[in-house]
Amino acid sequence: MAGSDEKIGGEDKHHKVAAEVAPFDLNDFTVIKEGEAEILMHVKNQVFYNKAQVNNRDMSIAVLRTFISKRKQEHEAMLSKKIKKSWSKATLEPTVETETEADSVMSDEKSNGEGETSQETPQDKPVSIVGDNGANIEGKGHRELKPPRVLEALSASGLRALRYAREIDGIGQVVALDNDKASVESCRRNIKFNGSVACSKVESNLVDARVYMLTHPKEFDVVDLDPYGSPSVFLDSAVQSVADGGILMCTATDMAVLCGGNGEVCYSKYGSYPLKGKYCHEMALRILLACIESHANRYKRYIVPVLSVNMDFYVRVFVRVYTSASAMKNTPLKLSYVYQCIGCDSFHLQPVGRTATKNTSVRCLPGFGPVVTQDCSGCGKKYNMGGPIWSAPIHDQEWVTSILSDVKSMKNRYPAFDRISAVLTTISEELPDVPLFLSLHNLCSTLKCTSPSAVIFRSAVINAGYRISGSHVCPLGLKTDAPMDVIWDIMRCWVKNHPVKPQPLDQPGAIILAKEPDLQANFARAVASLSKAQVKKVARFLPNPERHWGPKVKAGRTITSKHVSLLGAEAVNGIINNRDEVEEPPSKRKKTEEEEREESTPNV
């Protein structure tokens, strides 16, 4: 896979892969089938492949199918708007000639004998209105919508590119890039192995992805980034390579960095400081979105997220990229800093910017602050500050509904149908305008009390006049627009009915419970306390299909016994045994070297 530390550029790397593929023995490879594509994987760990990424690829295919449909609808709407505008413009232009000119024309026609017969245009024949410039209005500005071009910046074995080409109707050219020679050879081999459709649509280039994207600005309707680790080094060139209205699909697997394990590293890569909260995985999504927006703004562009998911061991976002210097100015309104209490884990958002309206003009100004006092109003402890993060919606609910319906209609074409449909179902029920979420167990841990059921807690929030939903990130996560004061009042009322043991007075839980609630919670079961999926008993959080379902060893590294935790003992032993069978015995290899040395030594 393309690495960020290797030398950029170079004429020897920047060339299109030839159509010819070096001969190979099928006995040295294992055939892996996913969807409609098949790839050949060598016994050695030369090219990266992870079975767990089938969820990632299936979700990407589902989004691309919806993107092609939406793109076609938008193009037709644009043409219809242009035609209507041209018609209205044509009707306003003067088309009646003066009477003298008309009389002279009629007299000329009669003198030539042509005015006696009149020709009427048949009603069933289409009529085209021609303006002063002689241009046909219906054809004015008409551009045929070409199939979308796809760029897979880090292709490895080429499985993703092959699935795009073979499974998505209406897809155009798919360009697969990698700066690792073994990966490109594997991709070429797999393209040929998948037949004529793959050969006609997929091409593989040996080149650094960053250089290629920089030298092909706004040429691709779809850019897919799925690196091994952080995508930060590819984002600047990726946002330039996407065409206006195109879609950028980006994966980040460095979750330890994004979730607060190495805050300083996250700040250096993404320009945002993470916090260690129960919502850290959603915060990782929002940090990645804020980073992409920051890179796009440098080129007068901005993003519109359509889907953002946390699955397995990574986060993946799908954003559309547009160019507009005026719309770009609204970016501070979409970003916020996060204040998190170190005692009770309460959090508050501080918007980076705000708008002020004067007469008809709207100005962007710095946000008012701070939104919190120096000490937490609940427990009296200090705050940690993180961010900035993307605080605007991370999903487009219309897109999510369309994607989910398309997935259900083509159930048999998705190997990971159960998993992606479960994730999409949960996302479709999320509150779109509520950043981050609460953990009910975390609240109870602070107060040292027994936990109410999710239904009871949700009912109390709904009865208090607020909204609440689940989160696709965490089964125990609850997204709500209720302020933290209301949340703690509900918990105080719960503890009154379910007393706790005395705590030290300096503990956050004791300080919170020492205050009387301003709100008397109503725990009567509300109608909307269960989501539609819960009522229908639709599975939303599925277990992993097999053990060791997670990240795998990076390509090129020799698999040894220390990788048991990643791959499992059985898989590691099988790989080691196969390697021993393929490799020659050391004694034989040594003898061959000695023979070569003797042959190369001249006789004296």
From TrEMBL:
GO biological process: methylation; tRNA processing
Basic and acidic residues: compositionally biased ranges: 585-594
Keyword tRNA processing: yes
GO MF, one example: tRNA (guanine(26)-N2)-dimethyltransferase activity
Residue span of region Disordered: 89-142, 577-604
Gene3D superfamilies in alphabetical order: N2,N2-dimethylguanosine tRNA methyltransferase, C-terminal domain, Vaccinia Virus protein VP39
Top EC category: transferase
PANTHER family linked to this entry: N 2 ,N 2 -DIMETHYLGUANOSINE TRNA METHYLTRANSFERASE, TRNA (GUANINE(26)-N(2))-DIMETHYLTRANSFERASE
NCBIfam families: TRM1
Similarity remark: Belongs to the class I-like SAM-binding methyltransferase superfamily. Trm1 family.
Protein name per Swiss-Prot or TrEMBL: tRNA (guanine(26)-N(2))-dimethyltransferase
